[in-house]
Amino acid sequence: MKKRTPVSTIMTAEVITLNHTDSLETAESLFKSNNIRHIPVVSGDAIIGMLSYTDLLRISFADAADEDDTNVETIVYNMFTIEQVMAKNLVSITSDTLIKEAAEILAKKEFHALPVVDDGKLVGILTTTDLINYLLDQF
């Protein structure tokens, strides 16, 4: 296993993002159509938050427990904005951060994705799945 490998070699560089003004329905559609679990939220070129599929599930289950309507998610999603639901206190890494360092961050924190930011610009995303696939490739 290479010990000094940067995350740029395993991160997802073609990042799907949400604008902070997008709807939660748009977010759900992106999660499902791209089979992903984390989407950085941007305002212009700046990343301002991270939305996870778990965040969406949390609000739809919490607020819809007593509803009988088949469109519960639409009703609940209209009650919130992306900015209200997303994680705001982000930990980010740069593309030259070593894979080992990124793995240590993810092992200690309660999230599963790190935005990769160079010079204030979002250039990728690194997830626990990327790390697991990297480890599997080593065997």
TrEMBL record:
Keywords: CBS domain, Oxidoreductase. InterPro entries: CBS_dom, CBS_dom_sf, Diverse_CBS-Domain. The keyword Oxidoreductase applies. Its EC number is 1.1.1.205. SMART domains: CBS (SM00116). The keyword Chloroplast does not apply. Residues 11-67, 86-139 form the CBS domain. SUPFAM superfamilies: CBS-domain pair. GO terms for molecular function: IMP dehydrogenase activity. This is Inosine-5'-monophosphate dehydrogenase. It comes from Kordia antarctica. The gene is guaB_3.
